[in-house]
Amino acid sequence: xxxxxxxRFVTPGDREAMARSLAGRRIEAIRRHGxxxxxxxxxxxxxxxxxxxxxxxxxxxxxTHSYGVFRLDRGTLVYDDPRQFGSIEYTDALPARxxxxxxxxxxxxxxxxxxxxxxxxxxxxxxxxxxxxxxGIGNIYADExxxxxxxxxxxxxxxxxxxxxxxxxxxxxxxxALAIEHRGSSISDYxxxxxxxxxxxxxxxxxxxxxKPCSECGGPIRRILVVQRGTHYCPRCQRS
DNA sequence: CAGATCACCTGCTTGC
DNA sequence: TGCAAGCAGGTGATCT
Length: 240
Fold this sequence. Notes:
The protein is 25% helix and 22% strand. It has helices at residues 12-22, 96-99, 110-118, 124-129, 139-149, 162-181, and strands at residues 2-5, 27-33, 36-41, 45-49, 55-58, 66-71, 76-80, 87-91, 222-226, 229-233. Helix 3 packs across helix 6 and helix 5 packs across helix 6 (162-181). It is globular, with a radius of gyration of 20 Å. The protein starts with a strand and ends in a 7-residue tail after the last strand.
């Protein structure tokens, strides 16, 4: 590959060094680690995080917010990110923040999940968002999972009964499996690498549905702040 | 350790 | 129509 980089997450000096290091490299494997895209190269590792508005498009258009352009033998990967909350890094080995991620929510066993939950005295919503607890869950899916599990976003993790914790585990797996099946949630502009939108936003029960009727009880969905994140839930269906 | 606050950015929507 | 405020899919630093 050859790379042009403008990401503000790399200092200007490092950008040139990174572009030089990437020149002529071959991608040997690409894996997802939670929200990170990790490209194993013939030398070193290229790690990309899309942040909130990042897109990595194969042969996508280049515009004002294209902060990384990777020319490959077949096609060009364009990294576009208006808000610049994403990141591109090149390291010798897997970066610590990727190595330190918690387990995959679709990979962890029920017993491991229950044990990890029991050990934490924090509120359940920020815990689901904590990438060291489980990897890959963001704000949309935390809200949708908690609705499905009928658990209040401010419930204390360690105080959930075994039964309710099991329901949370099931809700997490079901919600994520369904979302993957529908190829994600396109709220305003999210698209996958091929430029395709997802359709899971059509199945959201609480996220983005403030004041609309709950699909279970008909009462209004409420929006509150939990650790400074917009949080949507049904006050009647979801209990601490 | 948990939580609050702020910071990083642009762009879209809402309300006056 | 214009302008300011508020909001957005994420993460990390710093302070209490």
